[in-house]
Amino acid sequence: MNMNIWASAKFSDLFREPLRNGVYKSKEFHGRGQKVINMGELFAHDFISDQEMKRVALNDRERSTSLVEDGDLLFARRSLVLEGSGKCALVECPPEETTFESSIIRARLDKPRANPRYFYYFFRSPQGRGLIASIATRTAVSGITGSDLAQLIVPVPPLNVQCEIASILSTYDALIENNTRRIKILIEMARRIYREWFVEFRFPGHEKVRMVESELGSIPQEWSVQRVFNFGTVVTGKTPSTTHPEFFGNDVPFIKTPDMHGNFFCVEVADHLSLIGAESQNNKTIPANSVIVNCIGALAGSVSITTKPAQTNQQINSVVLKSESSREFLYLSLLGLRETLRSIGSNGATMINVNKNKFENLEVKTPTPDLLGQFHDVAFPMFELIRSLQTQDVNLRATRDLLLPKLISGEIPVEASEDSAAELAAQTA
Prior knowledge:
Elements: E1 7-10, E2 15-21, E3 30-37, H1 39-44, E4 47-48, E5 54-56, H2 60-65, E6 73-76, E7 78-79, E8 88-91, E9 98-100, E10 104-109, H3 116-124, H4 126-135, E11 142-143, H5 146-151, E12 153-156, H6 159-198, E13 211-214, E14 217-220, E15 224-227, E16 232-236, E17 248-255, H7 257-260, E18 265-266, E19 271-273, H8 275-279, E20 291-294, E21 303-306, E22 311-312, E23 316-321, H9 327-336, H10 338-346, H11 356-360, E24 363-366, H12 369-409, H13 414-428
Helix pairs in contact: 3-4, 3-6, 6-12, 6-13
């Protein structure tokens, strides 16, 4: 079925009730009451359910009009960038009373006519984003209005087709979410073992080891205090000259802070350098399995691991390891030193900035080589599974995002996509 023969309707014709903007409450009502979805949640999550949120106290009238329910679509009224204006998220089975703030528009659809999940995917598709862009203002703060949103003409395939498209695309999102949960469990397992062995000093054989004093306090005998540079060569990144467009291309990953944020491994990056661009910067290419740390700005202290040879920008210091058996230990140690790093990088200034010298001289309580090797043997399989799951997620998102516009437009028959999605789910179960 082709989108050209699907019926169309004004978006407002599909509403169960009129659009509503969220609540605005003064400070004395904050910190108690109902959960409140802020712009942070809207931009961070495509599906909003039981995430941690701030709270705001509502009166009875607000509770009757301004709560969310399963299937509500939420749209960002404003954004600092055009791409964020009108960003859509779907509410899924909120476990308790939850409201939304005034910069968000709620759309509640008539479910016998309009499948909310289908329309969530529609507003993620190029067609849907194009419609949103057509009503977005292009001022310092981009925005949309509810009245313009309601007037958009949207394709309305038969309800059964809407449900089938939503089901196919949901298969990919469910697999991604399952991988995300597994990654969180693996990260927590690795961090607990690290803490047990290297913070609480309950490592294998600890009963036979006495404690001695060091410049960082008590540590087990035969341990030492090492500096970051003892683990490998520290490389500070650099951005090639933007006056040379030939320096940028598709050959060498160029890692920046957003690529690291929330990612254990840097599996996917937004920008790349050309071979000429990479070669223009001597000794700036770092190998796979380098531990990289953002040392400038609000996200200073973020830590990640490279998965292929790459370069970074000047905000990032990288440790090219002497021995990859120290990878897991150093990664978790640097995570634990985040506040220390931020402290030495502030010096009363508003912008945190840790230079190479300060970074490579960070001190780390370091176990014996034998214990370091034992930890590597335990943690390595966890790290590699995390890497594999992250890679799967990248591939799943890419496949979903390629499939999305083709399903929404009717270019690909729903039946063929159902078979592919079912096969994929079976393979990754």
